[in-house]
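README: folding subset

This subset contains proteins for which both the sequence and a predicted structure token string are available. Records are stored as plain text. Below is the entry for DUF6754 domain-containing protein (207 residues), shown exactly as it appears on disk.
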Amino acid sequence: MAVQNLVALIMLVITCASVYYAQWDAKRGNVPTIRTFPAMDALEEAIGLCAEKGVPAWFPLGAAPIDDPQGTPGHIVTMSIMGHTVKYAADMGVKILSGTTRTPLIPMVDDVLTEAYRAHGAPELHQLEDIRYFPSQMAYIAGNDTVHKYDKPGCQIMLGVWWAETPAFCEIAKRAGAFIIGGTDYIENVPYLVAFADYSLIFEEIY
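--- output ---
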């Protein structure tokens, strides 16, 4: 027990010393460089492509439930990035369409889009009808095909927890010629997004 306490104390001292040194070094002007992710930088490119074509952007959510241990953080980060994406969409006059198989997510997504568009001076670009509900995973796949056929979005942004619908969503978007940005921490579907997406985030990069 004494050895464990000693190890914990040593780790605490090292951690505190590291934090103190980083703060001291930053005050001297040596601010560390934070690496950016090409997939995040590509959000502006994706929305710009939609603006050039005069079509909406398609930002569906994965089929995981909001109360799932893995789904909860995945959906939270997805909506956070969605709010960030609206900055570009509002500036370029692009409407963002979204979809889900989980009814509790609809008011959450609606609130994110409503507030983000309002904050950037374009509240008219979002209506509740822009969030599509699909009652099952298979209906979601069919609905994705319908969205690409009739709404013709210029890009498809797939972030968060994506399950078995992943390869079908990717193939449909690719056949439609949509620009794809993907990212998931669900290990089974990372290869699909890496293979199909123009830009991808891998595992914890989405956070």
